[in-house]
Amino acid sequence: MSILNRLPRLARFSSVLHRENVSRFSTKTEEPAIPVNLLKDTYSANLQTKNGAIYDKKPFKIRLEAGKNYSWCLCGQSKSQPLCDGTHKNIFLKIQLRPIRFNVPETKEYWLCNCKQTSNRPFCDGTHKRPEIQEKVKR
């Protein structure tokens, strides 16, 4: 007769340890939650149907602070990408697109879209990986 059969508490403890070891070596990874614009319903600029000029074909990683308001450049002309610097206000450029105002729920690093084609403005949703985006020449 096994010692584990004689000591049921030890057997339960042994099976718990075994399960923890199995889960620790699991190949599944937890995907981070997709961020959303908390001000999406507040500002009408989010309703713009057009996308701006492609600034870059890869996203930009930036540390954002919770509760602080930001303006993401949608026109693609800002010199301080991915954030707006007011270039769209230049009357000679005749830019009709307006920046997307947003804030984030927690302070951490976020990936902001630089191709300006995302459907989850201002956050990257992987749209830049599409062949038609990669083939376009950035301005």
Q: How many strand elements?
A: 4
Estimated share of beta-strand residues: 5-15%
**Biggest sheet features:** 2 strands, antiparallel
What order do the SSEs take from the amino end to the carboxyl end, as H and E? HHEEEEH
Distance between the amino and carboxyl termini = 77 Å
**DSSP helical segment count:** 3
Uncertain stretches: none
Overall SS class: alpha+beta
CA radius of gyration is 24 Å
Give a brief rundown of this model.
By secondary structure, this protein is α+β, with helices and mostly antiparallel strands.
Report on this structure.
With 139 residues, the protein is of the alpha+beta class. The chain has one domain (31-139). The protein is built from 3 helices and 4 strands, in the order ααββββα. The protein has helices at residues 3-6, 8-24, 131-135; strands spanning 60-64, 70-72, 100-102, 108-112. Strands 1-4 form a two-stranded antiparallel ribbon. A two-stranded antiparallel ribbon has the order 2-3. The longest helix has 17 residues, at 8-24. The chain is globular and about 55 Å long. The termini are far apart. The mean pLDDT is 84. It comes from Lasius platythorax. Its cofactor is [2Fe-2S] cluster. GO terms for molecular function: 2 iron, 2 sulfur cluster binding; metal ion binding. InterPro entries: CISD, FeS-contain_CDGSH-typ, MitoNEET_CISD.
Q: Which keywords apply here?
A:
alpha+beta, two-stranded antiparallel sheet, 139 residues
SSE blueprint and pairings:
Layout: H1 3-6, H2 8-24, E1 60-64, E2 70-72, E3 100-102, E4 108-112, H3 131-135
Antiparallel strand pairs: 1-4, 2-3
